[in-house]
Design goal:
By secondary structure, the protein is mainly alpha-helical. The chain folds into two domains: 169 residues, no CATH class; 109 residues, no CATH class. The protein has eleven helices and five strands, in the order E-E-H-H-H-H-H-H-H-H-H-H-E-E-E-H. The strands form two sheets. The chain has a three-stranded antiparallel β-sheet with strand order 3-4-5, covered by helices on one side. A two-stranded antiparallel ribbon has the order 1-2. A hairpin with a 5-residue loop joins strand 1 and strand 2. The chain is flat. The relative contact order is 0.09.
């Protein structure tokens, strides 16, 4: 596979030297994945026009292997089995594991040298789903880099089943956050005189937000920010929050690995219980949105 360098020349993703012909640097593939996350694929043309364009390019001096390289690169990234940010995370952590733990040269982390290295790598994950996703991302990176797959053997698959079974036996039972815990936190912060911070705690609990990059940057919105009126939020907007039919609606431009974001709804929970109104998102937001314009920050800090 070929990629454009800064000088416009065609260079291979992997080294052409005999010692590194089967490997490449993971960050080369990470750069391609990161670029594809922000760039749309090129529009495809009709077969007749495509043949004419190829013929014209060859008549102008272009060699045949160089003509379709950009289309091939883009097609491989579009066919990603998972979201590209998730694949980038899998490749990034494999690179760090290979360099820091296995002492492999940073320019030769793809593909893995031995299947035992991959087995050792997957043992650090507690969740079976995360293990499968990161292993799938590693396979995808090797396919894009066009390097060998001699590490992906039946022995590896059998070991993966054993690791998953062992992890299942050793896994801890899931524990839900008791409702009185966030309530106690909200009451404690309010007793300290910080009402806005207590509201952020209530929001994070109600929506299961990531506090730093999802809860605190929330912005005021309106029903015109819904998917029915606009396909995506305007450039530079982080989110939009508004009240609609006794519900709190929050639209995030991005949500974890969802590039297109998500729209979340929470109904009023003031059902007569003495503690419900203290963490009700509808009641909290109705007071915080007063006097704020569309696009303004919900929380001042």
């Amino acid at each position: 596979m070929l990629k454009k360098d800064t000088h416009g020349d065609e260079t291979p993703y992997y080294s052409s030297s005999p010692h590194q012909a089967r490997s490449c640097c993971t960050f080369v593939i990470l750069a391609a994945v990161g670029q594809r996350c922000h760039v749309r694929s090129e529009c495809l043309c009709e077969p007749r026009d495509g043949v004419r364009q190829f013929a014209a390019a060859i008549q102008n001096g272009a060699s045949l292997p160089e003509v379709p390289s950009s289309f091939v690169n883009d097609a491989l990234l579009v066919a990603a089995p998972k979201a590209l940010p998730s694949i980038a995370s899998a490749l990034r952590w494999w690179h760090r594991f290979a360099v820091d733990v296995l002492n492999i040269d940073a320019s030769s982390t793809l593909s893995p040298l031995y299947e035992d290295h991959v087995i050792m790598y997957t043992c650090i994950f507690r969740r079976s789903g995360t293990r499968k996703n990161y292993l799938s991302g590693l396979r995808f990176g090797c396919r894009v880099a066009n390097v060998e797959f001699d590490w992906d053997t039946p022995r590896l698959h059998q070991a993966m089943r054993g690791v998953a079974r062992r992890t299942l036996l050793l896994s801890k039972p899931r524990r839900r956050i008791p409702r009185d815990l966030p309530l106690s936190l909200v009451r404690h912060v309010r007793s300290e005189g910080d009402y806005e911070e207590s509201c952020s705690h209530a929001f994070a609990f109600t929506f299961l937000f990531r506090v730093e990059n999802e809860c605190l940057p929330l912005e005021v919105g309106s029903p015109f920010d819904s998917e029915a009126h606009c396909q995506s939020l305007p450039f530079g907007r982080h989110s939009a929050c508004w009240l609609e039919s006794n519900e709190l609606v929050v639209r995030l431009k991005t949500r974890k690995n969802k590039i297109r974001g998500a729209t979340l709804r929470r109904a009023c929970v003031c059902n007569g219980a003495p503690f419900s109104c203290e963490i009700c998102p509808v009641l909290i937001l109705s007071g915080m949105l007063a006097g704020k314009e569309r696009g303004a920050a919900v929380f001042s800090a």
